[in-house]
Amino acid sequence: MKSLEKPIEWKEEYNVKIGFIDDHHKKFLTILNQVREAALEDACLETISRIFYSLVHYAEHYLIKEEIYFKEYSNFSQHQEAHNQFIERIKKLQQDFQAGKEKICYKLYTYLFDWFNNHILQYDGESLKFLAGKGIK
């Protein structure tokens, strides 16, 4: 189980030195911490719709913008597939919530926590070297 003990604070080491990407990663972290708070305060029912809306907005605006920049990246199709899987997982969790399934905020938090650590901090970190090489800031 993922710990809900404390929010994840943005650290300088998370910066990739590409403005729009750092901004969106910070926004994602805000959403992650909102899910954490909702789960901790047992306020999932009151806040989950707004959280799903924020995630849809994140996917529609940030992931698509990122893909535009990565079109020439050698692993573009893998990167795009990871984004598609993210979107599908969020849709599934939203459907589970609408069907009345239990512990959706915790499941959502766990998924977003893993996405932050595995995709944003690791996978994106590797692929962003491509953008830096193109001089994008």
How is this structure best described in words?
- The structure is a single chain.
- The chain is an all-alpha fold.
- 74% of the residues lie in helices and 0% in strands.
- It contains four helices and no strands.
- The chain has helices spanning 19-40, 44-69, 76-98, 104-133.
- Helix 1 (19-40) runs antiparallel to helix 2 (44-69), helix 2 packs antiparallel against helix 3 (76-98) and helix 3 (76-98) packs antiparallel against helix 4 (104-133).
- The longest helix is centred in the last third of the chain and has 30 residues, at 104-133.
- The radius of gyration is 15 Å and the shape is globular.
- The chain starts with 18 loop residues before the first helix and ends with a helix.
What are the salient characteristics of this protein?
137 residues; 0% strand; globular; mainly alpha
Question: Mind sketching the topology for me?
Answer:
Elements (H helix, E strand, L loop, with lengths): L18 H22 L3 H26 L6 H23 L5 H30 L4
Helix pairs in contact: 1-2, 1-4, 2-3, 3-4
